[in-house]
Amino acid sequence: MHLPVYAHPTLTVLIDDSDSFLSSLSFQLDSALANKTFHDTSAALHWLCAGTPGNGIPLHVNFDMHNLPADQCNVALDLERIYRIAEQRERFATPSVLVVDYSMPQMNGLEFCAAVAHLPCKKILFTGAADEKIAVVAFNRGLIDRYIKKSDDHALDILEMEINAMQDCYFDSRSDTLRELVALHDYRFLTDPALTEVVQELKRTLGFVEHYIFPNPAGILFLDRHGKATLMMIETEQGIQAQYEIARDSDAPRSLLNALLERHVLTFFHDPHGDGMYTSGMAKHWHRYSAAPRICYGTETYYWALFDLPAHYFAQRPYTYAQYLREPQPQFIAA
């Protein structure tokens, strides 16, 4: 169990040749699951393939010909670009899950899924009872990720559950390369099941609908549906010790040093003109930048605390999921 480097609400695309069934299904789905419908497979294909999705990973390859052989290179990570995805209006219009009927006149559901196999979308075949054997073969061939029979009891509840699960899988698979790289450094918690469960519980209980890894300090940035930004700062024993040493070398007051030594506080120095580090000007009011940590025992001990993220960390205010659900959906623009 591991955590995607980012996740946000996305678009579910419903494809069925029956307009009345599509209208009913779209109306009955959970209002938090934004969807777009197509009764024409050609139109759906054209819309989905209008752009070529990028990998969304902020990697830059730099060749250093002076210090490395010509066949080697350095890889630089611009992690700030991850949480700045929240500034992109079109992120919620990213199609992540396709729900496809099997029996359609222009092409059947499996032919459609084969035609979009190059896209990262997860695919659910919504079938009649007679199509179950075909669906099993398609699943085993990797053409689809799930299949659900329309005749099943509670088929709609099952569909909603699977859409949510497939949205998680979408971001998980998109995160693989970057997660492997950053987990070698300050983001080992991304692959720790204990910390992953804490993050998921915070999302469930506090109403967060988006999360992004955050670069400085290392942690997870949450946004709720109204765009309120909350930083989950995550430190290890080694990280808190580094905080203490920086504060000590900057002549911080004894009260702050003792609090760090005793693991009573985490500090997030977020002045707009600072570099995130303690400065002497904070001596009298260092408590404003502090929070009592909670502890997560996983493969190592993590100390974490929640802080409101000041607005100056964004170049523009994030477009919120609540706005997206109220307004006409923007056209999908492939990343």
> Helix count, per DSSP?
10
The shape is: elongated
Q: What's the pLDDT, averaged over the residues?
A: 87
Low-confidence stretches: 330-335
Count of distinct strands: 15
End-to-end distance: 27 Å
| Largest sheet strand order | 1-9-10-11-15-14
CATH superfamily of the largest domain: Response regulator
Would you list the SSEs in sequence order as H and E?
Answer: EEHEHEEHEHEHEHHEEEHHEEEEH
Name of the CATH class of the largest domain: Alpha Beta
Tell me about the biggest sheet? 6 strands, antiparallel
Any idea of the CATH topology of the largest domain? Rossmann fold
Q: What value does the Rg take, in angstroms?
A: 23 Å
Class by alpha and beta content: alpha/beta
Judging by the overall fold, what is the CATH architecture of the largest domain?
3-Layer(aba) Sandwich
In terms of DSSP E residues, the strand content is: 15-25%
Number of separate structural domains: 2
As a percent range, the share of helical residues equals: 25-40%
Task: Note down, in words, how this protein is organized.
There is one protein chain. By secondary structure, the protein is an alpha/beta fold. It has 2 domains: 6-184, Response regulator (Rossmann fold); 233-312, no CATH class. The protein is 32% helix and 22% strand. The strands form 4 sheets. A 6-stranded antiparallel beta sheet has the order 1-9-10-11-15-14. A 5-stranded parallel beta sheet has the order 3-2-6-7-8, with helices on both faces. A two-stranded antiparallel sheet has the order 4-5. Helix 8 runs antiparallel to helix 9.
